[in-house]
Amino acid sequence: MEPASMTEPVGGAARRWQWVVRVVALVALAAVAFVCLTAWAPVVHGHPAYPVLLALTAGGAGVALWRARRPRARPGAWRLVGRGLLLVVAVGWVAAMVWLRPFAALQPALTAMRSDGAVTVTESATRIVLAPAAGGGPTSTTGVFFQPGARVDARAYAAVLRPLAGAGHPVVIAKQPLGIAFLALSAFDGARSALPEVQRWVVGGHSLGGTVAAMQADAADADRTAPAVGLLLYASYPAGDVRGSLTAAVESVSGSKDGLATPAKIQASRADLPADATFTVIEGGSHAQFGAYGDQPGDGIPTITDEQARRLITAASLRFVDSVSGG
Questions:
Q1: In angstroms, rounded to a whole number, what is the distance separating the alpha carbons of residues 46 and 153?
Q2: pTM assigned to the model
Q3: What does the pLDDT read at residue 1?
Q4: Helical residues (DSSP H) of 174-242, grouped into ranges
């Protein structure tokens, strides 16, 4: 006697697959619509990689719906396996598109993105540049390159970093592909090419961005041209031991109420950083207060206001950048 799966009508399995394809395709379209409706500004202001993938997702879902308009003949065993794998990949892809939805920049970061008589703000597909305005005072030859935290709108750091540009230090904030710093390893070299007048760089970053910044500073601290002379960590730490290789000065700024880069993790990072690294703790500060993008899952509850935290973080950053500035 043959198994039931072998004796059911040929059209039954085909029709079920047809509906599976339709459901997954509709979920994919819904996911794209959700991202666009809830995070349109950070999507269009971010690196183009994510909107391109969203467009491909919507296009692929449309093609799948068109192909599923009528059932096809029952496939062979190997094609069934292929369909199963394709289904797993499709579901994973859609889930990834939703997970990559960025944390949107909020006020006062959006206001800080406007140019005025002190700071000129320019934005491209891959970076934001906060530059001292022409005629607004002397411009330092020491600049700051900054890597945002994972999936955080690059504009979210404009308010905390803008005062550095106002003090004369050009600031470049990377727009990372898909909001992942590890996909922006070449962004520092791009910034150095775009601002050849900057002779020395402080490389910094928040959270995962700081981990990648440590790698970039370690790789560029011995460069003859536009070397990395400082590493500025916001609620972050290196991925491994850089004590014997990193020659750039290090400043670690962290929050005592951080639920992600916890005080214990920051304390443990001392063993991986040069002995002369300095540590500034923002008492009452949380992980998300290093930018302006709202609450972050897993974070602690701050006991100081966002404005208080931002002022303290900016002050610590400016002291450090000035201390390593070559002019």
A1: 7
A2: 0.93
A3: 44
A4: 187-194, 208-220
Q: SS3 of 110, please?
A: helix
Tell me: the pLDDT tens digits for 285-323?
A: 999 999 999 999 999 999 999 999 999 999 999 999 999
Q: What are phi and psi of 233, to 5 degrees?
A: -105, 125
CATH code at 109-324: 3.40.50.1820
Return the SS3 of 84: helix
CB 174 within 8 A of CB 187: yes
Residue partners of 7: CB distance under 8 A and separation at least 6: none
Cis peptide before 108 (omega within 30 of 0): yes
Tokens of residue 298, six digits? 């897993």
The amino acid at 184? A
Domain with CATH 3.40.50.1820 in the chain: 109-324
Rounded to whole angstroms, the Cα distance separating 232 from 2 reads 69
How far, in Å, CA of 185 to CA of 218, rounded? 12
For residue 219, with 0-12 CB atoms within 10 Å meaning exposed, 13-18 middle and 19 or more buried, which class applies? middle
CB 249 within 8 A of CB 231: yes
What pLDDT digit, counting tens, does each position of 108-127 carry? 999 999 999 999 999 999 99
Which residues have CB under 8 Å from 214's CB, separation 6+? Answer: 205, 231, 233, 236, 237, 238, 239, 242, 246
